[in-house]
Amino acid sequence: MSPGHFKNAYLSYNQQAYFGKLIVPQILIPFRPIARICRSTNCLGPPAPNPARSRSGLFRLPSSVLDLVRNHVAINSSKSGNRQLASAITFPRLSTCIFSNARFCSQEVRDRGPLWDAKQKQTHRLRDKMSRVEDHQITEKGKKSPSVPKPSSSVVLISPTNQVLLLHRVQTSTSFPSAHVFPGGNVSEFHDGRAPEPNEPGRHVDGPAYRLAAIRETFEESGIALAHTSSGRLLELSEQDRETGRKLIHSGKVPFRQWLSEKGGTPDVDGLIPFTRWITPIGPPKRFTTQMYLYFLPTASRVLDRTPLSSTEETLIPTPTPDGGVEHTAAQFLPPQKWIELASSGKIIMFPPQFFLLSMVAQFLKPSPSLSISELEQQRAQLREFARGGDPLWSEVCISPAALIGKLGDGRTVMALDNPGEGLEKKGRRGTKEYVIITEFSKGGPRRLQLKTRKEVMQDLKDDVKNSGTAYSHHLQHIQTKNTREKL
């Protein structure tokens, strides 16, 4: 739609309408292309309206709608039955303009750029969460293309007793509601630095932004600071400093690295061991490219006589105060095998990445109250050696789960883990062909998860064919055909 079509029209934003994170007063803006009103990083503010045209009453009544969720601006005519006259797609990354309250925008306001200094820190989290232009490209057939996976990080945090931390997400969460997850979250340019763009080679590779995001999110969500002092010791914080820091960082009032430096700490990025990357398959509206890490908290200096391992009481964590509510209700360290049993029995919701990594870790970490420090360290050494090996290396394994066959007789689905996703197979990235995850996808989330090798699944299907005739023969034939093609 060219500006000439509505040369005399004015765009009227309603009182209290959101524009970015700020409430915009009712103003009249001559309708022009979005790029003209919001010119990348040099917002000029609203041009002065023509009084003669505004008195004409053409669009004097509030009629235009700004919808950042749908990234859509529409012009409606109040005089013709609220009929839409025109619409345009906005550029979400350019939608954080600040307009003057006055009808005429002074040169001083224009020189300030798109964000005033006083508001810059308050809006950075919104910008990080907003979708990009490429997230909403329309294909030739008119269908919306798959969303671009957002860069994120997560940490398998090992306690001094070789237990693993999981956080219980709230039911109202927009991502993985009610599930038990590792601490982690999206990369923030404000806190962590710029993550590689989707078309850059480092987008799906371990890097500084991913590592810093993993440490920051762990601190925000659990209160545990993976940082060391100048002497190399783990940074110790008072309860007041810890909770104040979590709120400041979560709200974006101070950069994470700056706050940590003021407390005498440095992020322990070298202590993170990359341990697979997971990319959300095409389909869900929210997709992530998540770098997973292992991190070992220091062991104690004495024989451990902590809380019995059978305890299921969750330790409540201080409630953060993000926009919109609470992210997690509780945090708990448990042996990895205990988490696996809870997920397999359907008592908790757990997604394939967490279940797979816990299954790998459980092969080596078998905590017990009677273990000595040397025995705990021996378990850790074996896990470190495993995580740094593999073919392909576990640090380079990239997994985008996909259904291998149709549903089994018990209603569960077999998920293959060999596809790296995002066309990365052409770039030499691989998943793991040895394992599959069997799960039931219920409305609340994955249930009754089980990790098996492909050989075990093949044998199970063969046994089913023998016992029930041809009930599973089509599944078996599908897997055999797929394996033959892969060998060729």
TrEMBL record:
GO terms for cellular component: mitochondrion. Residues 116-154 are annotated as: Disordered. It comes from the Eukaryota. Keywords: Hydrolase, Magnesium, Manganese, Metal-binding. GO terms for molecular function: hydrolase activity, acting on acid anhydrides, in phosphorus-containing anhydrides; metal ion binding. Its cofactor is Mn(2+); Mg(2+). Residues 145-154 have a biased composition (Low complexity). Residues 128-143 have a biased composition (Basic and acidic residues). InterPro entries: NUDIX_hydrolase-like_dom_sf (IPR015797), NUDIX_hydrolase_dom (IPR000086), NUDT19 (IPR039121). Residues 148-356 form the Nudix hydrolase domain. This is Nudix hydrolase domain-containing protein. It comes from Verruconis gallopava.
